[in-house]
Amino acid sequence: MNVSTFKIANKLITGEGATDQLFNEVQRLNIKNPLIVTDKILKEVGVVEKIEDKLNCLTFDVWDGVKPEPEVHLVEECTSVFREGKHDGLIAIGGGSAIDIAKGVSGFAGFDGKIEELFGTDIVPEKGAPVIAIPTTAGTGSEVTNISILSDTEAQLKKGIVSDYILPDVAIVAPEMTLTMPRSVTAASGIDALVHAIEAYISVNASPITDALALGAIKLIATNLPKAFSNPNNVKARENMATGSLMAGMAFGNAGVAAVHALAYPLGGRFHIAHGVSNALLLPYVMEWNKISCVERFRDIAEALGENVSHLSDIEAADRSVESMRRLCEAVNIPKGIRHFNVPEDAIASMAEDASKIERLLKNNPRIFTVEEIEKIYRAAY
Length: 382
Ligand SMILES: NC(=O)c1ccc[n+]([C@@H]2O[C@H](COP(=O)([O-])OP(=O)(O)OC[C@H]3O[C@@H](n4cnc5c(N)ncnc54)[C@H](O)[C@@H]3O)[C@@H](O)[C@H]2O)c1
Ligand SMILES: [Fe+2]
What we know:
The protein is of the alpha/beta class.
């Protein structure tokens, strides 16, 4: 067996009412003056207030400047507020965008250079202020991973700061935080979580530990995403989605994600398509290409998605996994076709060039793609 490491947030607190533990955790981490990192929508729907109430009148500030698919300058802005307010800890309340900004600030606040210099793996020089992550979507798993994904405005690409120093200190995953998520965000973030689990399961770096988490996550998400989508107040489905997304985060945070994410990045970076949607647009086409490289793994995925494949050959079962994902994306109203997102067809060749350079993710993929093959996948998904 190959050597593999497994790292996640230092502590996970999960289940309805988990946010009641927030104050204890703030004290345990010796945070005296936290900065809450969130956005205006989450303030409006009352999610932020619920958390403020748990802080027992501790001194804190709220920075509500988070935007979806955050650009690098937002980390710089939040870092200025963090430094000026002499804050000593970060509480992220939001989806991947808020959590990634808070992790970015933790890595950047003590760094003497430009934030772009931190893009890449293991460049953050030391552990910064502690981060408590409270996800309000069930999708990214950012509450347990060592990655902060930011849009590099100049390069028009999404890039990652990858460092164990930015692993959150505590992840508080409470399903009630996700109840106000709009349908479209429930669908997009839920499919993102499913893609994390599928890509972790077929990754060349998968281990028995990440396999168990990935298959468990696929089962939970496939069963509960349609339920949470059809009835946003179904707390049990929300709870299972939160757990599924957390498990998928633990799986991909160690096994990595692969070609779906690599091909999705140019769509997010250049055309600002929501991360989960860009993944969903490409998923069935990339699965189609990947399936012959590890057909028995795709059989397992089909089973975890709820397909009865006992009477099928491996390749037939693998086909079922692709069909099943197509059906699920359709059931949760994910639009089909990149063409519907104002992406001009003549952008495909350069998108393929850009995607082919995302070696950090492509190296995890079970099949090696040439630029020409990537271009074919974009054209099929167009
Ligand atoms: N760091 C990682 O490990 C990792 C992994 C996957 C994706 N990401 C990144 O995360 C980002 C996407 O995050 P996301 O999918 O969680 O969405 P998001 O954080 O961008 O939020 C999307 C929208 O939903 C709203 N929203 C979120 N929760 C809500 C709630 N409970 N009630 C009402 N509105 C709510 C937000 O205000 C926002 O407008 C992308 O930038 C992506 O690249 C990071
Ligand atoms: Fe993702």
